[in-house]
Amino acid sequence: xxxxxxxxxxxxxxxxxxxxxxxxxxxxxxxxxxxxxxxxxxxxxxxxxxxxxxxxxxxxxxxxxxxxxxxxxxxxxxxxxxxxxxxxxxxxxxxxxxxxxxxxxxxxxxxxxxxxxxxxxxxxxxxxxxxxxxxxxxxxxxxxxxxxxxxxxxxxxxxxxxxxxxxxxxxxxxxxxxxxxxxxxxxxxxxxxxxxxxxxxxxxxxxxxxxxxxxxxxxxxxxxxxxxxxxxxxxxxxxxxxxxxxxxxxxxxxxxxxxxxxxxxxxxxxxxxxxxxxxxxxxxxxxxxxxxxxxxxxxxxxxxxxxx
Length: 308
Prior knowledge:
Blueprint: E1 2-22, E2 28-48, E3 55-58, H1 69-87, E4 97-103, H2 114-129, H3 136-146, H4 150-155, E5 158-163, E6 167-170, E7 178-183, H5 190-197, H6 206-217, H7 224-231, H8 240-246, H9 249-258, E8 264-267, E9 274-278, H10 281-292, E10 301-306
Parallel strand pairs: 3-4
Antiparallel strand pairs: 1-2, 2-4, 2-5, 5-6, 7-9, 7-10, 8-9
Helix pairs in contact: 1-2, 1-3, 5-8
């Protein structure tokens, strides 16, 4: 018997990303505001009970299947589920053949979390198919092993993410705000960007910053775009300057987006995608037209979306 599921794995932007030092194991301790957007990959999973267990994947990307985050997520789920059953002295069932198809719409090496969102979607579908066998904590820890952004995508929306990404706190949502993404042809490697950031670590009052961001983004008396506008002067991505050193075009794109009247513009994640936040549909439409005619955006993907 075959059973199939399909969903959209929505991408994200970082409204801020602060590097707060490193743990003894070398992982960075992060403090981020992550926000889902209405651009996503299409995920299809089919379970075939009549075939021997294996994980198959079709992603349209020229990498080994074992390197794909969707594949890794499925394997991690089955491993965790098996370990849990064995710890409880319960029999391990015969798992079905699992086929995953990812239709990629989110640019790679952009800081949009496309692969991480795919991984979270796979985890959620497997969790649903098998009747929620893993606890919330097991799902989060499984997600965290796959990447710093993956735990966020289990919740989605608007969240503060801390630690190595595994501490996720939901905030009042910012949905409906207009956004434009500008993705240059060049990408930025996450590993290289973090390594460069370590050469000049950010220094700031972490407690004061947390208090300030919490006050602004929990104020539901203000509209979502008003909260972002209020916080804009203080929104910082500590990976932005290192990424600009690796891909100088990012600085030009930030200026280009800022000059279109964006409420806030910055690079997301470790780059190289730049985004602008806009007051309304009209402002976003005018900005899109201006960016399409700006020589600095030649060769870039310009994508309109919304916060969700």
